[in-house]
Amino acid sequence: MSTVHRQPAAAPTCEVPAPSLPLRVARGGREKDAREGSTMLDIEAARDQLRASADAIQSIVSRMTDEEAAYKPSPERWSVHEVLCHLLHEETLDFRRRLDLTLHHPEMEWPGIDPEATVREETHTLSWRDTLTAFLAARVESLEWLGSVSQPNLEQAHTHPRFGAMAAATLLHSWVGHDLLHLRQILRLSWDQLTERAQPHTTMYAGDW
What we know:
By secondary structure, the chain is mainly α. Strands 1-2 form a two-stranded antiparallel sheet. It is 52% helix and 4% strand. It starts with 42 loop residues before the first helix and ends in a 12-residue tail after the last helix. The protein contains six helices and two strands; from the N terminus they run H-H-H-H-H-E-E-H.
């Protein structure tokens, strides 16, 4: 693989304003779950997790080159740029919106989404740097919104035509889990690039993936 010439990261030019608050905002006191012994995430615990995963994504991706962000091991796999487009889509049109509806208007039908089509469109609309900036700005808005939710009933459920009854708690845990799944995907893309660059040598001394 050809040598990658790194250049200093350009300042984001995304029309979406950069986060006005740091992702590592001060943590308020966390209320204990009313059910003794429960390990279910509450809103504040979920905020902590979502804040931490956004920090991790930013730390790993922001130092990439254009070539690294566009790298695809095979045509059917997403690049880091495409993963970022998907994260932005899910942040603005899926998890926050649907959790809000489930908590406050569970009877309302959820607006439709098409994640695959959105990734195809936005990959050609926003650069990967602008997409990262937009995702981080949207995440700050989500953290602020979650912090404003007062005494949520996480057992409140929306009846989905495909999945059946979905409690707010399911959406909240899935939101946190979604970050982790795509953080793993980003790390795997970095690992695949590293093993290619190591040739004719290997990464065997690091251990198996």
